[in-house]
Design a protein that fits this description.
heterodimer; A: alpha/beta; D-Maltodextrin-Binding Protein, domain 2; 2 domains; 22 helices; 11 strands; B: mainly alpha
Chain lengths: 458, 166
Amino acid sequence: MNDDFLYRLRKEPPRAFAERLKARLENRNPRRARFSIVRTLVLGLLVGGAAVAATWWSVQGDGSGELRAAVSSVLGSNPRASGPLSPETIARQGSFRDGLPLQGSRHAQPTPVATSSAQAPGSDTPKDEPALAEAMQGGVVGGYGGPHRSAQGGAANAAHLRKLLAAGHENGMMLLEAVGKRTGFELELEQVEDDEAFRRLCITEQAHLVVTTRAMTEEEKRQCRATLGSWAYRDILAMKLGYMGVAISAAKFGTSPPLSPREIFLALAKRIPDPEAPARFIPNTNVSWHQVRGDQERRITFFGPERDLPLARVFAAVIMKKGCNTFPSIAALRDADPDEYRRICREIREDFVYTSVREDEFFLTQTLWGDPHAIAVLSLPFFDSHREELSRSLLSGVQPTKETIASGAYEGSITLFLYARGDETAAAWMARDFERAIGPPTHLAGYGLIPLDAREDR
Amino acid sequence: MLQRLSITEVDWEAVFAEQLPRIYNYFRFRLGCEADVEELTSATFEKAWRARDHYRRDVAGFSTWLYSIAHHAAIDYLRTHRQHLPLQAALEIASDSTPEHDAQLASDLNRLAQLTRDLPERDRELIALKYGAALNNREIARLTGLSESNVGTILHRIVQALRARW
């Protein structure tokens, strides 16, 4: 019994099996596969959401977590969940839309087309998904376009605009992609910073939709009005989508002190500024917290989501980015070299410091409890539902609660806004699909999105 | 200028050819028998393949993802099939080798499964990754969160213990 003996126990997979599996993988239609993931996610959330909501209701009133109220809207009822978006709702959500009809739009009206086809040619929208054209026949378009624009005309526009240009925050692009797949729209996505996103929407007209992490400023509104004209300005839809965030925690009796985004960045980034020449970026060799913050000589250990999961992208875009922006040499790259800036801010090291885990009871009891020094990156719903077994939030500053998330005081979350050019019917329909998607039960919850609760939505 | 976000740069056929024997043997070692190995291997690849577009520039990340899926699949399987573990092994005969050789392999694998049955979960995982998936200590360290030297030390201790009981 030695290494060689153990290696000799290996054997090649049967050839027939390998060929069969390969053929199956090759024949798999990747686009359909992505739809099935979404469907699985939706089903999982439907079942899981109902169970968790029931549990929450049963324990409600024990006073153990204000966040519960904020997160429960993912799983509980929300008046926005169903039905078309009414003009009143749009006016309520739009920060500056006045609900006027689209008369005077300088965009030519496309030739009306028949709306009997629920699915545009080449669309992969599954038959059990509500097709866009079908939904349009419900007359909801009138809610956007005013009485002069018929459902037929709206469908024509949608057909005309099946390819949409979208820009904005990386997590926003992730959401747009998820919703777009359900509608059969073809999206061209580009990640840009908020300033650039508004510029594309209003000034260069390179985007039909943008998702940003801040609302449009008065100055940007003024520019928008000046460039597009008052008619166009009135028809930009604005919607606050909700919040995205993560929690940083540890085992109940963990020993870690609070951490700032900067310290988390220094612990987890793949590359960090060279202390001796900050404009140069070197591989991260920090292995103990003593190297990061000079206090304790204990190993850096993080558990978090798989690197390709939406939650990991939220973590990178929210906390890692905040941390990296505290370094002037990295912040300077934001305009000088945006691609390099994004890489440095979001790439997590690939050595033993960060281990991907799945959020479940096994992780809590077998992994996290076994290492009191380990830090965990968790979804806010998971954190909230396991408060009894976890430490407080270790992110410096305030604890995540409904109020601190909504106010932006909690550092681990961001607010997302969707702006769409209302003169493009397709864009308006994307806004409507977001309206549905972010209502509970929502497949977007898997993307770290915490929708507005009913009170905030009023 | 707007750019579409789908670019394929990885030779997925090569990835499949390299990873299939590793994942297949990872399951053989984790389960200690041949039963259901093909099914678990298929499920792992099918799940990972759906997400491969996300790894068009990061094959290392894809491998980590693949082993993570395999790990959870093995855990789930063992939770529900624990009572059957060592019993089916000797009955399994593979198709691409001589019956005698396969019978010997199955017998040795069964013996290994019996000896490792009482080991901690982590140790059984390390054996499967090292000798089943044929990963080196650095790769195992990255997957498990242990340090590379720790992986070597633990594996050395396990093999010593197994040798004494073989």
